[in-house]
Amino acid sequence: MIIYKNEDEIRAIRRSNQIVAKVLDELRTMIKPGVQTKKLDEYAEKRAREMGAVPAFKGYRGYPASLCTSINEEIVHGIPSSRALHEGDIISLDFGVVCDGYYGDAAVTYPVGEVTSEAKKIIETAKEAFYKGLGQMREGCRISDISFAIQSYVESQGFSVIRSFVGHGVGFFLHEDPQVPNFGQPGRGPKIKRGMVLAIEPMIAMGDWNVEILADSWTAVTKDRSLSAHYEHTAAVTQEGTKILSLLDEKESLQSLKESRYA
Ligand code: MF3
Ligand code: CO
């Protein structure tokens, strides 16, 4: 069942997403050779709590941390640990919070120091794939138009799309209907309507799209161990059109967001 949100609810979901965006932006400055991924996790949790939110992933189906830190061939759900980043790595950070009962969810892939031109290209392609998908998130389209736009673009760049993980509705819960696959034929699935809030999250690979889950039962890696990148935002179809809720608004202080919760 798809839960449509009114404008007040979308505003509340946006506040949670602004906290996610702020944390992901702050984490960018910590991405350096030598930093342990558990330090990123500790920082993300601390900052979310300071801003009045609670990490959404911790304890979700038993996930043991607040942040997902997926390095190189790791696609998603990498568990923070004492592993240190190395120059030339790429790291996907996926973060979610709940604030006043509303969920935010976003992910980004960052380079660690200088990376190869191929690594830069896969990072850019995941981001651009998100925007290609977002372009189809408007009234008159169907969910799989998003999927098709993402797959077509990613494959045109010589990369593949991961099949085992999908985007999703989000807002009252972390994962709501509908599922938003990153591949498929256009013109299928639910119609896109005002009030829909979706996390669109392409995960792509340099090699083929087969996935393996590591012994920790969370970390998803490419079977061929080729590089993978992830990019995700939460977006809403509002009366003024489609808006990304997890894009950091630099003009608006988090303090003012926090105060507006009680306005
Ligand atoms: N953004 C990821 C998703 O939507 C977050 C995974 S949540 C976890 O699936 F708790 F399972 F890690
Ligand atoms: Co998500």
Topology:
Blueprint: H1 7-28, H2 37-50, E1 54-55, E2 67-71, E3 74-76, E4 90-99, E5 102-111, H3 117-134, H4 143-156, E6 160-161, E7 167-169, E8 176-180, E9 197-200, E10 203-205, E11 211-213, E12 220-222, E13 228-230, E14 233-238, E15 241-244, H5 254-260
Antiparallel strand pairs: 1-4, 2-4, 3-12, 4-5, 6-10, 7-8, 7-9, 9-14, 10-13, 11-12, 14-15
The structure holds 2-amino-4-trifluoromethylsulfanyl-butyric acid and cobalt (II) ion.
2-amino-4-trifluoromethylsulfanyl-butyric acid (MF3) binds next to strand 4 and strand 5.
Name the features.
263 residues; alpha+beta; Creatine Amidinohydrolase; 5-stranded antiparallel β-sheet; 4-stranded antiparallel β-sheet; 5 helices; globular; binds 2-amino-4-trifluoromethylsulfanyl-butyric acid; binds cobalt (II) ion
